[in-house]
Design a protein that fits this description.
The protein is of the alpha+beta class. Helix content is 36%, strand content 21%.
Length: 468
């Protein structure tokens, strides 16, 4: 494994790839655009949309391409009728090769028309970008997966291993019904696979037309919200006492603010810092290479901590996000609460992190409670050559001169639930994104048009490489 990682990093190129102008659409691309438009224009917000409707529309397209009823499974929890999903299975010829699973969530973050420049639920192509809610996160990927199965049917492709597609709801809203979790816990056999491909990877452009890197996501942090709470009898504000719930909570939060979780590396982040650092010619790049070689290099750590993204990649982080205290302006507080959001480095449990917070605070009068829903904390999947190798080989053909590096997400995806169910899950390279995040979760979400079409071709060939 270590030799593979070293070889992967050593093979990284040092130059970027200019993104060319969009060519005219091929007939297959034009058909894909229609499918993509239908999916994007199906509102799948939690407040007013329906993932169930989107899943039904994708199922209808697959059935129209020739899929049998027993190859399409629409599912929904009766308590959440609009948050359903779809599992489609394209059979393989081998009785021994395990399937692969293509996962994508089809729910999207809320979007208010009055805030957007364009209608968030109408696909608009403008200045080389597709604009609409979900274009980047992550309906382009969902459409690519469905389109791949349709193309298989149309061409009569006969893979050795089966290919499964799971379109699920609930990734964007913690605490809502989550389709990936439901499948993992209730229909594990339906999604059983050797490994899964998901969101989380992808390319990085400079925002000016040049693709600078591609990433495969291998592992991610787990998140949890802890409630910190202090209580006492309170009283009249005219006679203050030292035993004040707000001050007690404030002291605890100050200790958390001043606490730095220790630096950690795993196979993924070590390969990331070594490989991505070599593509840079600045002090940050040199620090990245140095920390990969020696995690105890404090000078390199100090440089990396100056970038909040790298700081987070190197450790568990906990930060206060909400406060609630007191009951009257002229009364001593009887209770004070804070929400502390933690992003936990792989290999550590929620319980372990809560215990560390208690140690740091050092005050038994501060209650610490992990708030539901508590997500699983699976280990990172392996940097498996059988998975990453085909990605690397195809990336050299599709994105010559652009490095492919493994990365660990500091956020989270539905890979959490699949990993906990024993299905290693990887965020795929392919479509690329701008440095500003493309408006995902924000206003005027977009994705570069060429990114979608080139990424679609790359991923189609990648699926075939895994299934020949």
């Amino acid at each position: 494994m270590r030799a593979f990682i070293t070889g992967l990093v050593a093979a990284l190129a040092l130059t970027g790839q200019a993104v060319a102008a969009e060519p005219p659409l091929r007939p297959d691309q034009a058909k894909f655009r229609v499918l993509f438009k239908e999916l994007v224009e199906t509102n799948t917000t939690l407040s007013s949309g329906s993932c169930t409707l989107a899943a039904e529309r994708m199922a209808a397209r697959l059935k129209g391409a020739g899929f049998a009823d027993d190859q399409l499974t629409l599912f929904a929890d009766p308590a959440h009728p609009k948050e359903g999903g779809l599992v489609a299975v394209y059979p393989g010829g081998s009785t021994t090769a395990n399937p692969i699973l293509l996962l994508a969530h089809i729910d999207v973050v809320e979007a208010k028309r009055e805030d957007w420049t364009r209608d968030p639920f109408a696909l608009v192509e403008e200045d080389g970008y597709f604009y609409a809610r979900g274009t980047a996160d992550t309906k382009a990927l969902a459409a690519i997966w469905v389109d791949a199965l349709i193309r298989f049917k149309e061409t009569g492709y006969k893979p050795k291993r089966a290919v499964k597609v799971a379109l699920t709801c609930g990734e964007e809203t913690n605490g809502a019904f989550n389709g990936a979790q439901w499948l993992s816990e209730n229909r594990r056999g339906l999604i059983d696979a050797a490994f899964a491909l998901n969101e989380g990877g992808g390319g990085n452009s400079d925002g000016k037309g040049t693709l600078v890197s591609q990433e495969v996501q291998v592992g991610e942090k787990t998140f949890v919200n802890f409630r910190l709470e202090t209580r006492n009898a309170g009283g009249h504000s005219s006679v203050p006492v030292r035993d004040n719930a707000i001050y007690q909570l404030a002291r605890a939060l100050t200790k958390i603010d001043e606490h730095e979780f220790p630096l950690e590396l795993n196979d993924t982040t070590r390969a990331y810092f070594a490989g991505a650092g070599k593509t840079r010619g600045d002090a940050m790049g040199r620090a990245m290479v140095a920390i990969a070689a020696n995690p105890g290099d404090r000078a390199a750590e100090a440089v990396l901590n100056g970038d909040r993204g790298y700081h987070s990649m190197l450790r568990t982080t906990c930060v206060a996000t909400l406060l609630d205290a007191g009951h009257a302006a002229n009364a001593l507080p009887q209770r004070a609460r804070a929400n502390v959001n933690c992003r936990i480095f792989p290999g550590h449990s929620i319980e372990e992190t809560g215990t560390e917070l208690a140690r740091v605070i050092g005050d038994p009068g501060v209650g610490i409670t992990a708030l539901p829903p508590v997500r699983p904390t699976p280990p990172a999947p392996p940097l498996d050559p059988a998975v990453v190798g085909p990605m690397t080989a195809l990336a050299k053909r599709y994105f010559p001169g652009v490095p492919l590096v493994p990365s660990m997400a500091t956020g989270y995806t539905d890979a959490t639930f699949l990993g906990a169910a024993g299905i290693p899950t990887y965020g795929v390279p392919g479509p690329w994104f701008d440095p500003d995040g493309n408006g995902a979760h924000g206003l005027n979400e977009r994705i570069e048009v060429r990114s979608v079409y080139v990424g679609r071709d790359y991923l189609y060939d990648l699926i075939k490489a895994y299934t020949k």
